[in-house]
Design brief:
The structure is a homodimer. Chain A is α/β, with parallel strands linked by helices. Chain A is built from 12 helices and 12 strands. Chains A, B: It comes from Nonomuraea terrae.
DNA sequence: TTGTATGCGTTATCAA
DNA sequence: TTGATAACGCATACAA
C-alpha cells in the first residue's frame, strides 16, 4: 500500500510509443505534430502524470524556482503582511515562496539562509535579525544572486533594501503632538537601541523636537522589548517628577504597551501617537492616532526589486523608502492637561 | 560579472585529486581516511562549495525535503501564528516550509497545491478555503503522501485534521454570558454560513442556550465577513425591538466589529464574549472577555501529525482537537442592564 | 578506504 | 517532426 511510484515522463512516452523528449516538447509547447500532441496529452491524463519540478529546475537553470524569505516572526501581523505582499507579487511570476522565521536570532537566520542557498533559491529576501551580519553573503552577491533586505538594511553588505519612512514618519508623528501643544513628549521604543528602526525613529523624534526648538531630555526616552515591558516603561515615564503629557510609541508592541499601561492606570488624559497601525486602534478610548506603515507595500516593493534583478538589472544597490501616513483618531489630538 | 558557475562536488574532487564519490562520503560521514577527509574539507572551504540540496533531494528520495502549507491569509495573525507553529516543529527535522496563501479562494488553493505537488513536497498541510473540495487529492493520499488539514476539516477527503474545540469553546463562552444573567444573546458570525468553524461555533451557541432552557431566536443571529460588516451586523442586532443584552462574536474579525460598533455607539453596557483572543483585548473598555484559541498549538499538532506520517504511521485518519480557554476580562461579566 | 558504473527525471544538442 | 545521447549534481551498488 502507498508509495507506488509516480509516473514519469518516460512512462508517458512508453504508453504513447514515443520518446521522453517528445513528451517534454508537448508539455513545453515545442514543435510537435498535432496528432502526436493529442495522444501524449491523453496518456498524461490517463496516467495522472505530473511533471517533476525538482528535476526540471535542476536541469534547466540549476536554480530553484523559489524565493527564500526570512522574517523574524510569523505571528506578528506586520511581518505576516509583508510576507503576503511578497508572496502575491512573486507568485504572479511562477515563483514559490519558502519562508523561515529567525526569532530575531542571528544564528537561526544564518542557518535558514544556508538552507535556502543549498536549495539554490533564485533570490533571497531577508528581514535582518537585530544583531545579524551579512558579510558572509558577499560571494553570493558577486555571483549574481539577487538579495533584498526588508524593513531594515543589511549590516556589512551593500544590497537592495526596502524600508518604511521611519525617520520622516516619526518626525511627523511627534510634530503632530507638538502642534497640539505638547512640550514634554515621552518616547517608548524597542530594544536593542542598536536596532535600525529604533534608531531611525528616535532620530525622527529628535528632529521634531529640534524643529520646534524643544530640548531633548534623555529621561523621556524609555524602552521595552514586548508589550509588558513597554507598559512598565510607560509607567516609569508617567511617574517622573516632571512627567510627559504625551507619548510617542516606537512600534506596534510599544503602542500596545503604552495603551495597556494607560488603560490600567485609568489615564485618558495622556496624548499618544503610535508608530504602526493596530487593528483595534479605532475602538480604543480615546481612539489611537498612529503613523501607519504599509507592510504589504514593503513586501510588494521588495518583490518587484527582486524580479527586476532576476530580469537582469545589474545597476547598483538601491534603497526604496515606503511612505507612512498619519492617521489622526483622537489620542494624538488631546491637549496637554 | 555575476553568474559564474558554482563549484560542484566534482570540482572539489578534482581539486583534491579524488572522485566525487569520496567527497560525497566526507559530507555524509561515510567511511573516509582521516587525511583524505581533511584535504576534502580544505578544498570545500577553499572553493566555497555548498552541496546542492535540489540534486540531493532528487537522487535520494525523489521527494523534496519541504512541506507545503496553504493558508487563507498571511497577514491574519491567527494563520500567521499557525504557520509559525508548523515551521518551528518542521524545521527541527530538517524540513523547510513552503507557503502560499489562497485568499480564501478554492481556485487559488488548488493551483498552489498543484505547484506543491509538482515540487514533490514531502507532505501537504492545508487550511481549506471556504468552498474548496479535495477529492482531487485522493490519489495522492493512496500514494502515501501525508496530508493534514488545519483549522477546518477537508471536504471530500478522509484525512488527518487538527481543529480548535470550536463547539465546546463556543458553548462555554455563551454559557458564561448566561451565568451572568443574560437571556437574549446575539451571535455575530462570519460568512459563509457553510464555513465549518462558523457552523460549529453557532452549534455551540445553541448548545448553551439549550442547556439553559433558553429559546433559539433566529433574529439574534447575524453575519459579517469583515470588521466593518461585523460592525453593521452588531448595529442591526442592537436596533432590534427586543435587542440582545449580550453578544457572542464568532471569530476575531467579528469580535473587532462588535467592539468597534459598541465603541462608536458609546455603548458600554452590552456584554461581549469573543471567540479568539485579540492583542489589545485588555486595553479595551471594558476589557474583552474571550474564548482564546491556541493557534501555535494547532500548527504544532498538525506538524507532529505530519512527522508521524512521514515516519511511517499508516493508521487511519485522525482528528485532533486543540482546547480553547475562557479568559474573563470584564466585558463578559457585565450584567444585563 | 576508494573508484566505477549507473540512475534519479528532466531538457539540450544534434542528427535523422 | 522525432529520436538518440548526453548532461544537470548527487548518491547507490558493487567492485577493486
Amino acid at each position: 500500500m502507498g508509495a507506488m511510484r509516480r509516473p514519469t515522463m518516460t512512462d508517458v512516452a512508453r504508453e504513447v510509443g514515443v520518446t521522453a523528449k517528445t513528451v517534454s516538447r508537448v508539455l513545453n509547447d515545442g514543435p510537435v505534430a498535432v496528432e502526436t500532441r493529442e495522444r501524449v496529452l491523453a496518456a498524461v491524463r490517463k496516467l495522472g502524470y505530473q511533471p517533476n519540478l525538482m528535476a526540471r529546475n535542476m536541469r534547466v537553470g540549476a536554480r530553484d524556482a523559489a524565493i527564500g524569505l526570512v522574517i523574524p516572526e510569523m505571528g506578528n501581523p506586520f511581518f505576516g503582511t509583508v510576507a503576503g505582499g511578497v508572496e502575491s507579487a512573486v507568485r504572479a511570476r511562477g515563483l514559490t515562496l519558502i519562508v523561515g522565521s529567525s526569532d530575531e536570532a542571528a544564528g537561526l537566520e544564518q542557518s535558514l539562509i544556508a538552507t535556502f542557498l543549498a536549495r539554490r533559491v533564485s533570490a533571497l529576501m531577508v528581514v535582518p535579525a537585530a544583531s545579524s551580519d551579512h558579510r558572509h553573503l558577499r560571494s553570493e552577491r558577486v555571483a549574481g544572486l539577487p538579495i533584498v533586505f526588508l524593513d531594515r538594511p543589511s549590516a556589512g553588505l551593500r544590497a537592495d533594501c526596502v524600508v518604511s519612512a521611519n525617520r520622516e514618519g516619526s518626525r511627523t508623528g511627534v510634530a503632530h503632538l507638538i502642534v497640539h501643544g505638547h512640550r514634554r513628549i515621552g518616547f517608548v521604543g524597542d530594544v536593542p537601541a542598536s536596532l535600525y528602526t529604533r534608531r531611525e525613529r528616535l532620530q525622527g523624534y529628535r528632529d521634531a523636537l529640534d524643529g520646534a526648538g524643544l530640548p531633548y531630555d534623555r529621561a523621556l526616552v524609555e524602552t521595552g522589548h514586548d508589550v509588558e515591558a513597554a507598559a512598565r516603561a510607560t509607567m516609569r515615564l508617567l511617574s517622573l517628577a516632571d512627567p510627559p503629557t504625551a507619548l510617542f510609541a516606537g512600534n506596534n508592541l510599544a503602542s500596545m504597551g503604552a495603551v495597556v499601561a494607560l488603560s490600567r492606570a485609568g489615564r485618558k488624559d495622556v496624548a499618544v501617537v503610535g508608530f504602526d497601525d493596530l487593528p483595534l486602534a479605532e475602538a480604543l478610548d480615546p481612539p489611537l492616532t498612529v503613523v501607519a506603515q504599509d507592510p504589504a507595500a514593503v513586501g510588494a516593493a521588495a518583490a518587484e526589486m527582486v524580479l527586476r534583478r532576476l530580469d537582469g538589472d545589474r545597476s547598483r544597490a538601491r534603497r526604496t523608502t515606503v511612505p507612512t501616513r498619519l492617521i489622526a483618531r483622537g489620542s494624538g489630538e488631546l491637549p496637554p492637561r
